[in-house]
Amino acid sequence: MKSTAENTAQDQNLLGAYRHPTDRSAGQWAVSRSDRPQLYRIEHRLAGGEVHIDTVVDLDNLKSKLRKWRREGFVRHDAGAPDKPSANGSAFLRDLREGPPHAQHDAGKPGRTAAIGQVVMPLGAGGPLVPEENPAYLFAARSDDILRDVVENRRLLLIGHTGTGKTSLIEQIAAHTHQGVLRSNMNGQTTVGDFVGFWTVKGGETIWIDGVLPTAMREGLWLIVDEVDFAEPAILAVLTAVLEPGGRLLLKEKGNEIVAPHPSFRLFATANAVGSMGQYRHLYQGANVMNEAFLDRWRVYRIDYLSREDEAQVLRRTFGPRISEAMARTLASIAAECREAFMREDLAGAFSTRRLLDWTALMLRTKDPETAAGPTIYSKVSAEDARLIRSIIEHHIGVEE
Ligand SMILES: Nc1ncnc2c1ncn2[C@@H]1O[C@H](COP(=O)(O)OP(=O)(O)O)[C@@H](O)[C@H]1O
Ligand SMILES: [Mg+2]
Asked: Basic and acidic residues bias: where (predicted)?
């Protein structure tokens, strides 16, 4: 049972109370500020006043609770006058969006930070594993939530077609925050041994070699598990164990040694055909279906190709005065049209930003789009695809007389 003083302090932080308009036995849900930033306390009080649920949730969780209560017929009651319906139903959302006063302070933490767009990020320890900064890299608006999730130590799964910029987004965030990164591609020969570690004999002695996962966890590196939808089940099982923030790794092969995560450790994965990308699975031969329980352990972001405007801007940033605004726009349109053809299955392969940049670089040297497309595009695709891409290019650029 809570003391009156505690209840009063709780009530001062009250953001909203929800009741059923007719069913008194449904009790009351109360949402209040928690004493931890970004987290909200929810309580369920029964009709007799007894509190039988008292828990702390994050914003996403709270939003889904609000939706559930609404579905169940609960309506908001004014915090000051709990028996009357709310005079200002949007006050709760306003508090939520503007944030309770003490929730704003996380940007002011001591320590070295770097700002990427609107988001202040802590700096990593540096070192040889920090990816190289790409000065032409554009942090599109889509990155903001992802950046905040990195700060909050969320597990992030980026899904999207090949070449949309999933891996490079993580690498460029790491480059800007001086954070070392390890990458492990599941669409290849990555074994559980590579991932977790193995015993080997060196100089007559049997020694344990950490795999990428314990290495990243111990040393506070970021780990990108690329193309996780190709990972073998044994690797997924190990991964699942560390998906909870603070989740520890049990090295069974090493006498059940426990590896605790360094505070800077972050875990990312990328995939082509999972979740809402499932409709394109036929384009990615061999990709596995990921079950919902696995997906639920990640924040899953869909990364699409850059918009034509953003991609034209990346071209201008990459090649500077060597490329005109109109050229950049035309090239971005060609790429966009090839992608549309890929999604219609008229083309077998995707047209990545990397391919566009490479073609442009060679075109600026040869001064001939068609010649430049040979080694950068046509040689990499079937004759049939090359024909279609050539016709898209000619349609935009025109043919020389
Ligand atoms: N926002 C961006 N700004 C600049 N270049 C980008 C951007 N997004 C992607 N690229 C370019 O596209 C290439 C392909 O991206 P990548 O991250 O490898 O794709 P994915 O991992 O989705 O297959 C990168 O090497 C980079 O040069
Ligand atoms: Mg990638």
From this structure: 94-109
